[in-house]
Amino acid sequence: MIHAYSVPDVRAAEAAMPELATGELMQRASQGVAEVAAARLEEHEGASVVVLAGPGGNGGDALFAASFLALDYAVVAILTGSGAHEPALRAAHDAGVVVLESDSPSSLSALDEADLVIDGMTGIGGRPGLPPGTSGLVDAIGDDAYLLSVDLPSGADPAGLVASDCVYADETVTFSLLKPVHLLPATEAACGLLTVVDIGLTPPAAPAVSRLTFSDVPTLWPVPGPDDDKYSRGVLGAITGGEHYTGAALLGVTAAVTAGVGMVRYVGPPAPTSLLRAAVPEVVFGDGQVQAWLIGSGMPWEDASPEQKTAIEKALASELPVVVDAGGLDALTSPRSAPTLITPHAGELLRLGRRVVSSSLDDDWVRSNPVAAARAVADALTVTVLLKGSVTVVVPPSASGVEVHSQSDGPSWLATAGSGDVLAGICGVLLAGGLTPEDAGAVAALVHGVAAHDANPGGPIRALDIAHQVGRTVARLLTR
Ligand SMILES: NC(=O)C1=CN([C@@H]2O[C@H](COP(=O)(O)OP(=O)(O)OC[C@H]3O[C@@H](n4cnc5c(N)ncnc54)[C@H](OP(=O)(O)O)[C@@H]3O)[C@@H](O)[C@H]2O)[C@@H](O)CC1
Ligand SMILES: Nc1ncnc2c1ncn2[C@@H]1O[C@H](COP(=O)(O)OP(=O)(O)O)[C@@H](O)[C@H]1O
Prior knowledge:
By secondary structure, the protein is of the alpha/beta class. Helix content is 39%, strand content 16%. The chain has 2 domains: 2-208, 3-Layer(aba) Sandwich (Rossmann fold), CATH 3.40.50.10260; 214-479, Ribokinase (UDP-N-acetylmuramoyl-L-alanine:D-glutamate ligase).
């Protein structure tokens, strides 16, 4: 498991270290930045380095790193704020670093010609958005330069919530503890490769964000034992697919069967039913006793058959765990007390938000702060929201006290029709197997992403191949 901690908790962890006041912590941080920069410049004698240094501690890290790098490389520092970290600026001057103001004409040409640029404009004290007057500097960085951000990409929200103009780094070097900026959807892509340098901070008690890794799968995946039978392992009831979207039923149910559910019961109209009878002979048909329901994939509410509508209303009124996907979201009109995991993409979350949070939400509501949007819907309906995207977040209601989970395991090829139906099927298996909605959503997102990779490493993927791959991927993750 990877954890990220809130900025106040990171500051408290720093404050607890006697080495903060002596400047030793910053020495460790800047030495780490310089070592990573030097490693990236290997084989490149005579390389030129430019440091963008802001007025705070982040600029201090960058300027000290500049002073270390000046032993081997030609280093220019550009001051981007009013003032600079004094001891670090002195060290840079003493080491022979050429220091420029941001409006100096030489700044733009230095950036254009740099082999490596260290971005130290803002760190955990940064407000979202590039500091005034710096976007021209960022634009001047040559396409071939390696862009290394200190702690986080300048302009990115340290809390990882608000989307804003920021640096897009090739690599970010952070110190001992990850912050939400490194793992959440509004900001993760801007961090590039993430490298952690240990400066000796002790992790705070509670994380703000968690991310499962491969080694968490054996702990969480429901593996059957000798006393299990198909019922004790969990029966999943699927009310998915319609006369028009027969494929959604096939994809979700196939994924559930290959992911190792005890049994799937399917409730749906004739077309998807006959497709499933032919393609997935393991499935049983019609309403019956289940441990969890999966409702809504490929089933716009207006297309649902009367039998499906009745079954959905019964499922939602029950005390059973439910995964609600796609069209099923329209049936969710009041809070649920039983475990509930909803799996919208951004467009579906916006539509739901307009119904249950406020009808006046603007089109940018989800994109501008995805976690807050998911949280608002989670609180309004007392459900856990799995918001899909290249970074998928699983956001429980605030009252649960459970942290946000964030997964980013799949290739961008996953953006293909039907792959969400596969994910919903895996979520259903895990709820039927007794996992909490938070764990089910996070493990399902991980396995779904890895299965997509395994289905065709490095190339395009069709959703049905992911569904067929899931079982082998689960085996690989359980036995590695
Ligand atoms: N202390 C230590 O020993 C250690 C510290 N460490 C390092 O220090 C970093 C934290 O340093 P920090 O607290 O000084 O905050 P930092 O992010 O540099 O920015 C503050 C300055 O930027 C300004 N500013 C912010 N946003 C802005 C905007 N959008 N537009 C314009 N201005 C903006 C802000 O202005 P103000 O808010 O005052 O108006 C203030 O002047 C941390 O990320 C890590 O790199 C590590 O070495 C570990 C040990
Ligand atoms: N750029 C991307 N990189 C990685 N995964 C992505 C990307 N875009 C979408 N995904 C994933 O692909 C799936 C798409 O789901 P969804 O939009 O519901 O598709 P559908 O409704 O066609 O099944 C989700 O699991 C989502 O997290």
